[in-house]
Amino acid sequence: MKKVLIILAVVCVGLAIAIVCTSIKPSYDITYSIDNELVSIVTKQDDEIVNFKDGKLKLKKGKSLRFEIKANSKGVDMSDFTMSINGKETNIVKNQSYNLFTSNNLDYGYYIIPKVEKDYDVEFSGAAVLENKFVFETDLTDQTAVEKMALAQISFTGAEEDYKDFYEAFSTEGEKSVTYNYKEETMPLSFKLKFEGGAPFYISDSLENIEFVTLKDAEEQEIGFESIEYQESEYLFTIGSVGTDGEYKIMFDFSKLEYKQFQIALPTENLIYTVTSEKTTTTYNETAEIVVEKLNNPNVDYTEMKLFAGEIELTKVSEEGNFVTFEIPENYTPEMTGNFDYYLINVQGLEYTKSLHGLSSLANFPDEEGAYINYKLRNVDTNGNILGVTTTDPFGNFMTFEGDRVALIWNYIYNTSNEGYQMPYDLYNYDIYYNEEKVLNLKEVIGDLSNSFVKEVGDYTIRAIFNEETLVFDSFQLEFSCSGAGDFSFTNFALCEKDVYVGFNFEDARVKKVEYQIYDVEMGNDWTALIAGEKKKVSVKYGQVIVYRVTSTAGQIWLSEMGIQENGAFTRLTGQTQSDATNYYTLFKFEISDLQYTNTKDMILQKGF
Question: Band of the pLDDT at 15, cuts 50, 70, 90?
């Protein structure tokens, strides 16, 4: 019996030792494997990176272990990626901003073993290189579409050397497809189209309005292109990031393409020829006739006259008397003539028996950006009647023959709503120069005259029209005989002084007094008091500021409470409020506008604004 007890005691002690030894095992073995090199695994314990050696790692009991999963490049498809521990698949916490189509964020996700309590065998698998197949299709049974295909070439890869005739590519070589490997390729998948003549069809660069080509996924759902660009006569379609469905279709429907309408830009009217057309627009598959009428100018030889659309000479169709008909042929686009979206018609081949001279005019206003005078150059007869323009250079500048009578014509811009001229400078006090030589000062020429007149000033004749309604000379002609090229300039303008009425016409128990001042750049400290109901005439210039200061002892008066009736004489500026120990001040500021008028304008401060 004692022997049995001894044996049992030994067994119990052994079991106890075994249990104790098991419970105090200091670490566990972690092994992991991955089926390819498309992803990297980073393991961390207590935010410190721990490294596996030969796929094995020993970790202390009770510690957490974090696995961070990262794609090694863009184009890694993780849709079938799994992580299993001891044969059981885990739920990876996925990074919602992971995008396999870019390299901006390659962090796929992570998984945490919260407490290491046993040996773990971790396996990663399923990462793959994304490959998408794009199949190109079109309908070759629609004859209208086939006719349009004859104008097209396509590069299925986007490479210049891969261009093929569109119709032949689909009719002789069967299905067209491109397989795209997103890991190996460095650019988004794209294909190119180009058409004879550049752009004979309406093809919008708006992704929402492309109808003749569509991109569909495996379930026939239409998805959009990333971008469409037109450069150097080519359309570049960029597919971009479509998804991971494997196969996509690119469908062409040329029947939806419409020929583009192109503008016909005719030369400006002149005294040498007249160019007309029954059409203002034409299309790639149409012809358009252009008629040139020779005006039999005595200084012009029309024998070799030709007509061009941009850089392309047009064919003469017929000639009858002074009328010559030319034709813009079908199958031509403006791009083929050197312009993008319009036919620029121009006459060439004329011989001149007299010298042609270019003339120009310019108004040099002090504010540089002003446009206060309408001015132009025209040919006139001896009575000042306007004949037109002899001709222009390629840039539209006035040209005329030596000895022709020419007039510099100008007038002021009248604002009918506000009854004044939109002109901050004196209407008369400025100079006119020709080739840097002074011709006249308008104020000196007008003098005390108050009726329309014609005067000789040196080699020039000036005609001035007096406006009986506004009581202002506002239209002029300076006539002369052209003897060479030259430039006219309006210069030495001076700001005009004009009158306005200042004052205020309200009563308010809060108001202690109303004052005003006029300043150019900065407000000063000198104020002039006003009396309610009385107005005062003051002289002002364009750009000056009239500011009213309303003083109150019974609380602030707000900027929205007062203003001036709009009449074009001013522009309201942002005011301001101030206060001191006893008073509240409200400043209402108004900048003098460029309007010039005959009757004095009111700038009376009122309530109710």
Answer: very low
Q: Is there a single domain that holds both residue 474 and residue 360?
A: yes
| CA atoms of 107 and 34, how far apart (whole Å) | 17
Residues 149 and 221 in one domain: yes
Contacts of 30 by beta carbon, 8 Å cutoff, 6+ apart: 52, 56, 57, 58, 59, 65, 116, 119, 120, 122
CA distance 41 to 33: 10
In a domain, 16, yes or no: no
**9 located within any domain:** no
CA distance 90 to 314: 76
Q: Average of pLDDT values for 258-276?
A: 95
Measuring CA to CA, which residue among 573, 588, 430 is closest to residue 514? 588
530 and 506 Cβ atoms separated by less than 8 Å: no
Q: CA 453: distance to chain centroid? A: 50
For residues 467 and 473, give the distance between their C-alpha atoms in angstroms, rounded to a whole number: 6
Strands 128-129 and 76-77: antiparallel
Confidence of residue 245 (pLDDT cuts 50, 70, 90): confident
Residue 161 phi/psi, 5-degree rounding, is -75, -10
- Whether the pLDDT of residue 122 is over 70: the answer is yes
Domain count, the chain: 5
Distance of CA 118 to the CA centre of its chain: 65
Q: Is residue 213 within 8 Å of 203, Cβ to Cβ?
A: no
Residue 255 has phi, psi (to 5 degrees) of: -65, -20
Is residue 330 helix, strand or coil? coil
Q: Is residue 2 included in any domain, yes or no?
A: no
Greatest C-alpha distance within the chain: 156
pLDDT in the model for residue 9: 42
How many whole angstroms from its chain centre is CA 418?
34
Which residues form the domain of 164? 131-256
Is the pLDDT higher at 62 or at 533? 533
Q: Is the per-residue pLDDT at 25 higher than 70?
A: no
Q: Which pLDDT band, with edges at 50, 70 and 90, does 187 fall under?
A: low
Put the strands of the sheet holding 312-313 in their side by side order: 281-283, 261-265, 342-348, 306-309, 312-313
pLDDT on residue 189: 81
Does residue 308 sit in the same domain as residue 388? Answer: no
H or E segment at 62? none
pTM above 0.90, yes or no: no
| DSSP 8-state code for residue 268 | P
Query: 409 with 377: CB under 8 angstroms?
Result: yes
Of 383 and 574, more confident = 383
